[in-house]
Specification:
The protein is α+β, with helices and mostly antiparallel strands. The chain contains 12 helices and 10 strands. It binds 3,4-dihydroxyphenylalanine.
Amino acid sequence: MQEKLKEIKEAALCELDKVSDVKSLNEVRVKYLGKMGLLTGLLRGMREVAAEERPKVGALVNEVREAIENALKAKEQAFAEASLNAKLKSEWVDVTLPGLSPVTGAANIIEKTVEEVEEVFMSMGYDVVDGPEVEEDYYNFELMNLPKGHPARDAQDTFYIEDEKILLRSHTSPVQARVMLAAGGKKPIRMICPGKTYRRDTDDATHSHQFNQIEGLLIDKNISLANLKATFDELFSKFFGEDCIVRFRPSYYQFTEPSVEVDVACFSCKGKGCPLCKNSGWLTICGAGMVHPNVLRNCGYDPKVWSGFAFGFGAERVTMLKYGISDLRKIYQIDLRETKVFDRRED
Ligand code: DAH
């Protein structure tokens, strides 16, 4: 019996030594320690061992079982360690390597201009509103003091959709009428409306059949051109820079009286004259004026009580001037390399 035990021990340890994977390790476990295993089988024969021998043999059985179990455990641990090491090796990542930054485009530069202008006006208590791009002639022209057949309509070559009633808005000014009518002639108004406008135009470096305007309207009591001037000083010093000089020039619009053209001193030559300002020293930015009494009346406001100013400028124009973009079409192209050039994000 003792001999047999020793043999089993040696055979088991020898087999375990050769085992190279978890599967065969389990086979060895079953072969020796399993219910039908060799060691278990031997134990059944204990009854035949003489009583005085039993403690000795029992101790030996325990020793053999322990030896086999220890060897199994050691092998198991070695396998677990090896598989962990292999995993660590195959999944190793050098966290100190610089990351791969994803290729991104940039927000369209017009969108940025609009956001910047909105910020300035919101800081002065203005609301930002929207209006329909498919508009009625009534709002686009009639309420704005441009009745049917008026020659000033010709200045805005318009896309008509349905007879002469429905059109693609040729400017954002109809939003003035919508906001005034919604306010019912009773409340002061401060609003800007950025949005797309449409005119029949041949697309080139400075023209497009679709472009963006930013309209503004302020209605209150005792409003004068001085308020308009202060508003532009604030807007352009924030948008173009502190030292921006603003001037008004008399002009004509059907919806304002008096009407002005708003210029800023040329940033390139500071007023001396250069190709950018066509030697005038000034860059024209915006049309504006005091809201015409007819427009106030048409939209439910009593011109004896209320007064106000309005303005409208092209988002593309101020963007091109600010960033020195010479071709309008670059702004509309969906070329990531181009949009990236205009990206002013700090990263
Ligand atoms: N709607 C004018 C245009 O498209 C721009 C404009 C001029 C808007 C004077 C105004 C304004 O509100 O008061 O040319």
